[in-house]
Specification:
Elements (H helix, E strand, L loop, with lengths): L2 E10 L16 H13 L6 E2 L8 E12 L3 H5 L2 H7 L4 E8 L12 E9 L11 E2 L6 H10 L23 E9 L2 E8 L6 H13 L5 H10 L14 E7 L5
Catalytic activity: uridine(38/39/40) in tRNA = pseudouridine(38/39/40) in tRNA
EC number: 5.4.99.12
Subunit structure: Homodimer.
């Protein structure tokens, strides 16, 4: 036996955590997962996630890769119950998948999707899980604007200015609002996302819905490539990472 690489699939409620990535003086999902897996496998385990969710953002489908040494594959694949026993209720390990030695949870992902939830009536059971918005929105206009995203690739206007990335180009494949119960859900898919991109897009689309800007304004914002032209980022509580795709995973 020797070192072997695996993916672990997770779901988590991000309300209590300062995002995915380990950082000083804050509790994160990655920190708790690494600690649980290190105890279970009796060796230091360091995961690398498919992306970085911000504080308060949730995930129903999240992958990370990790390496483990001198442990039989059968034991690794059957580790879910043991790892879950050491994780808080807000974090759930779903499955472990053997992958090739160079597999990378972040760089190998070919598609991602997020959902953003909005509700319009006060509901204690949606606290930290959906955004309470009391404004009336023109959903048809919001969908018209959302469809325009598919015509662009440079989304600098929706990216945090201090984001360090080699390109601000993304290929958006879906962007649509749908009614759900007493609220709305916005679904957006792309090959990749910039930091804070979905929350900034959502904030700008809400401006469309409130008739503060129109479709021509929305186009001009995107073409400006200027973050200060776009709307404010909406609260993290309504955002969920819901799908990650890899060419070698079913």
């Amino acid at each position: 036996m020797s070192k072997k690489r695996y993916f672990i699939q997770l779901a988590y409620d991000g309300s209590l955590y300062h995002g995915w990535q380990i950082q000083p003086n804050a509790i994160t999902v990655q920190e708790l997962l690494d600690k649980a897996m290190s105890v279970f496998f009796r060796q230091p385990i360091e995961t690398l996630g498919c992306g970085r969710t911000d504080a308060g953002v949730h995930a129903t489908d999240f992958y990370a890769h990790f390496d483990v040494e001198n442990v039989e594959e059968a034991k690794v694949l059957n580790a879910i119950a043991g790892i879950n026993a050491m994780l808080p209720y807000q974090i759930a390990a779903k499955r472990i998948i053997p992958v090739h030695d160079e597999a990378h949870a972040r760089f190998d992902a070919t598609a991602r999707a997020y959902k953003y939830y909005v509700h319009f009536e006060k509901d204690p059971f949606k606290v930290n899980r959906s955004w309470l918005l009391k404004d009336k929105l023109d959903v048809e206009a919001m969908n018209q604007a959302a469809a325009l995203l598919l015509n662009y690739t440079d989304f600098s206007c929706f990216s945090k200015s201090n984001t360090q990335t080699f390109t601000n180009n993304c290929k958006v494949t879906k962007a649509v609002f749908e009614a759900q119960g007493d609220g709305l859900v916005f679904t957006i898919g792309a090959d990749r996302f910039l930091r804070n991109m979905v929350r900034a897009i959502m904030g700008t689309l809400v401006q469309i819905g409130k008739k503060e800007i129109n479709l021509d304004d929305f186009k001009a914002i995107i073409e400006s490539k200027n973050r200060s032209k776009a709307g404010q980022s909406v609260p993290a509580c309504g955002l969920y990472l819901v799908k990650i795709e890899y060419p070698y995973l079913g």
